[in-house]
């Protein structure tokens, strides 16, 4: 037997309605906020992620699925969505259109890491990117879009955590303070963080090692080293959120795991799965477009893992909103009736009706048992008499009531 690869999951029919509900809600909310869908390739030139995501991140150093294609090119399955959107923004001159450029996506991503609950090697993201605006009002709009999405789904007990990690200028002073602090514990840091100490000490704060995380608790906080411009930007973002009644907690430990982030960063967390876990994370990335070859362009966005969201929704008692997959089951007795059932089912489906018929040559009794198993709301049995008279009984499977109807798909459709 061949099994699915480790770190992947099959989305079975019983869970598909919940996935469709999430995806449909994402489409609707993004359209309400003026965002348009973009679809990018599942693989990209490896340099895009090395330059965009950052070669000191765990994603680039440890987790990317990278291979050489038959033309000798280094190719990587996308580990996240932002870098691909930024590349497309430059390549297709989207900056020449009305600004800001507001885009969203629902994609699969790939990271080679230890599979665990809600964290897979193939996973799915819903994300948005807004390019071309530096206004703190944009930061607030992105955050409120995420909260609106969760509210539309009916998810409760979420917590918004907010921070600013400044611009490259104020990061310089902060990084020096971090190096001074972590130098005291250099021998205790994991091997990865020892290399980060000189190149990018902020990444140590985001390390998943228990030892490094414990040491990082006492490290200086970026929010205490913001320059005047970054401080003003953060304060205004908070004011915009206050003006629409959004509650938040300022958490100076949020730095996010990718190098392109600047200024506003945020996480939305839930404790529905026990320990508090991040459901959605994002922030501003004002240097990303320039880093991968474009003109300086401000950007901000977020992404959320759909697998983890499904787990949270199930924990809160949510199911898909498709109660029954079948409107009517047409049973048949004999070859003549079987052909008639086939024609009727076909025409009902053309009318948008979820219609089923027997495909296994079962007895009438077995056909009706099957109709019950698939949750059909109505049923009808055709024999030679029904076909000749073009009349049959339509049965309500819940109440048992029957009504005589013509074997006409348009007429039957009106009764379902």
Describe the structure.
The protein is of the alpha+beta class and 416 residues long. It folds into 2 domains: 16-167 and 227-315, BirA Bifunctional Protein, domain 2 (2-Layer Sandwich), CATH 3.30.930.10; 328-415, Rossmann fold. The chain is 40% helix and 21% strand. It has 16 helices and 16 strands. It has helices spanning 16-32, 46-54, 58-63, 82-91, 136-153, 168-183, 191-199, 202-205, 210-216, 228-243, 288-291, 306-315, 335-350, 364-373, 384-389, 409-415, and strands at 36-37, 43-45, 66-68, 74-77, 101-110, 122-131, 158-164, 249-250, 262-270, 277-284, 299-305, 328-332, 355-357, 378-382, 391-396, 402-406. The protein has an 8-stranded mixed sheet. Strands 13-12-14-15-16 form a 5-stranded mixed sheet, with helices on both faces. The chain is elongated and about 90 Å long. The model has no long low-confidence stretch (mean pLDDT 91).
Give the number of domains: 2
Protein structure class: alpha+beta
Instruction: Give the spatial strand order of the biggest sheet.
Output: 1-5-6-11-10-9-7-8
Helix content: 25-40%
End-to-end CA span: 43 Å
CATH C-level name of the largest domain:
Alpha Beta
Largest sheet: 8 strands, mixed
Radius of gyration: 28 Å
CATH architecture of the largest domain: 2-Layer Sandwich
- CATH-level-4 superfamily name of the largest domain: Bira Bifunctional Protein, Domain 2
Key features of this structure:
single chain; 416 residues; alpha+beta; Rossmann fold; 2 domains; 5-stranded mixed β-sheet; 16 helices; elongated
Brief summary of the model shown:
The protein has helices spanning about 15-30, 45-55, 60-65, 80-90, 135-155, 170-185, 190-200, 200-205, 210-215, 230-245, 290, 305-315, 335-350, 365-375, 385-390, 410-415; strands at about 35, 45, 65-70, 75, 100-110, 120-130, 160-165, 250, 260-270, 275-285, 300-305, 330, 355, 380, 390-395, 400-405.
